[in-house]
């Protein structure tokens, strides 16, 4: 979702970034950064998506569909 769409969904759910941050236990800036960049704490992304009643994959599609960049070395 576009950041403006996430903000609209938060407003529709009668919430604020500040309320989400307080309930999660982080700074409001952290919530804002994740909404605007689409990257950051996966648990917080899942929390935001849950608060607006959507699946994390729908809200933060680019993050959850990114290829795993970790290369595992053979032992």
Describe what this molecule looks like in 3D:
This protein is mostly helical. It contains six helices and no strands. It has helices spanning 3-12, 17-24, 28-37, 42-51, 56-59, 61-64. Helix 2 packs across helix 3 (28-37). The longest helix has 10 residues, at 3-12.
Strand content: under 5%
Order of helices and strands, N to C? HHHHHH
> What composes the largest sheet?
none
Report the CATH C-level class: Mainly Alpha
Number of helices: 6
**Overall form:** globular
Q: What is the fold-level CATH name, i.e. the topology?
A: 434 Repressor (Amino-terminal Domain)
Which oligomeric form is depicted? single chain
Distance between the termini: 40 Å
Rounded to the nearest angstrom, the radius of gyration is 14 Å
Low-confidence stretches: none
| Structural class estimated from helices and strands | mainly alpha
Known CATH architecture: Orthogonal Bundle
Which short descriptors sum up this protein?
75 residues, mainly alpha, 434 Repressor (Amino-terminal Domain), 61% helix
SSE blueprint:
Elements: H1 3-12, H2 17-24, H3 28-37, H4 42-51, H5 56-59, H6 61-64
Helix pairs in contact: 2-3
Quick recap:
It contains six helices and no strands. The chain has helices at 3-12, 17-24, 28-37, 42-51, 56-59, 61-64. The chain is globular.
């Amino acid at each position: 979702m576009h950041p403006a769409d996430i903000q609209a969904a938060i407003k529709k759910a009668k919430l604020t970034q500040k309320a989400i941050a307080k309930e999660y236990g982080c700074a409001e800036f952290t919530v804002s950064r994740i909404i605007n960049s689409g990257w950051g704490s996966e648990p917080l992304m899942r929390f935001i998506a849950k608060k607006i009643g959507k699946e994390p994959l729908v809200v933060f599609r680019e993050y959850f569909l990114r290829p795993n960049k970790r290369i595992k070395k053979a032992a």
